[in-house]
Amino acid sequence: MVSDNTIDGSSIVSELKKARVNFVIALPDIVTCDGLLWPISRDPDFQLITICKEDEGVSICSGLSYSENRAVVMMQHTGFLDSINSIRAMGMDYQLPIIMLVGLQGLEPDSSPNESSKNGVRIIIPMLELMQIGFHVLDKQSDVSSISDLIDGAYKKSSPYVFLVTRAPL
Amino acid sequence: MTMRRDEALSLLATHCPDDIVVPVFQSAFDWMKIRPHKLNYLCTGAMGQASSHALGLALGCTDQKVLILDGDGSLLMNLGSLVTIGSCGPENLWHFVLHNAIYEVNGEFPIPGGFETDFSSIATAAGFPRSYNFDNIEELRKGLPEVLAGPGPVFVCLKVICGEHYPRNYETIHDARQRASFKAALATRLATSRS
Fold it and tell me: Nearest CA of chain A to the CA of B178: how many Å?
């Protein structure tokens, strides 16, 4: 039984499969590595592409979006910040369905991202709002069940979407 | 070194009349005139990202040949993508870099390393099974059949001088209609090839 103040990594994996995600593009992030990335790496339902820099992942997803494939890019919030120009171009300008799963490394326990003492964490949600990119905070188990619908919606609308992971999935 | 970029691209176009091509900046402007085609993927958006877009296309369309016409300054911005491509090993990807040692559309300022940077050796070290260098149109004419035969990923450095300056049509590159046209053409191509 998973309590609501933890997140079960396998339930996120199930949601990705339900959303017909078949490619995962990733640069390891300390928040999601053990509970999500390692299990995905062993799962034959996903083709995992490991990258050297996060903006590569945004662009690989862009290329994939023109075929009948669905992809998610996994990165740390620092990688999101490093990839802003690619996200601006592909997400804002071209409105491609770039789905990002972003670990908020350094977020204090039981704090909201907007109240973090870490500059890099605290500016993420205001930046997403400024860029008009939809997002969903994965802070507890009950936040997980909407992942597949949100990914479906992003692909149907052809628009970018970000999942912010506040705690390490177990 | 006497090979003009437009000559090299014109020669390449005769070998690749219908393949998916991802050209960037001045090569894109030239290519749009030399080989106008709905399967020209012009929408790489951010400088340096062509190789990664092309990898996404190659992974998503494994039965289609995908060519990148990269710039040297662009590739320098995303050298890690060579390792990513070398690691993935897509057999349907050909990465050409047009090496003229300048940021041509940004004031013709020299790139770091000039002509000293050995892109082909970097690609080999990054895991590309085959890498080539050409700086002469006749050698390229002789070599292209071998370059394009067999499986990828293949890396090709073309040392060039600027040729004819085709118009820099940025509007077309960023036009939503161009992206929609590419997507429709790719869907048709994939449906045809898989039927």
Answer: 11
Which CATH number goes with the domain that contains B56?
A: 3.40.50.970
What are the sequence ranges of the domains in chain A? 9-165
Span A42-68, average pLDDT: 97
Q: CB under 8 Å to A42, separation ≥6 — which residues?
A: none
Please indicate whether, in this complex, the C-beta atoms of A94 and B179 are within 8 angstroms of each other: yes
Q: What is the pTM (predicted TM-score) of this model?
A: 0.96
On whether residue B149 sits in a domain, the answer given is yes
Q: ipTM value of the model?
A: 0.95
Amino acid B57 reads L
Domain count, chain B: 1
* Cβ–Cβ gap A67/B61 under 8 Å: yes
Residue B71 pLDDT more than 50?
A: yes
Q: Which two tokens stand for residue B7?
A: 């000559």
pLDDT at A3: 56
pLDDT value at position B170? 84
Q: What range does the domain containing B144 cover?
A: 5-186
A94 touches chain B (CB under 8 A): yes
**Min distance B29 CA to chain A CA atoms (Å):** 19
The CATH superfamily holding the domain A9-165 is Thiamin diphosphate (ThDP)-binding fold, Pyr/PP domains (3.40.50.970)
Q: Is residue B124 part of a domain?
A: yes
Could you report the per-residue pLDDT of B39-69, keeping only the tens digit for each?
Answer: 999 998 888 999 999 999 999 999 999 999 9
Is residue A50 within 8 angstroms of chain B, CB to CB? Answer: yes
Give strand ranges (E) for B91-167: 93-99, 102-103, 109-110, 130-134, 154-159
Q: In whole angstroms, how large is the CA radius of gyration of chain A?
A: 14
* Residue matched to tokens 């945004």: A58
Is the pLDDT higher at B124 or at A6?
A: B124
Of residues A70, A58, A74, the one with CA closest to residue A154: A70
Mean local confidence (pLDDT), A120-126: 98
Q: Which residues of A touch B78 (CB under 8 A)?
A: 53, 55-56
A92 contact B CB<8A: no
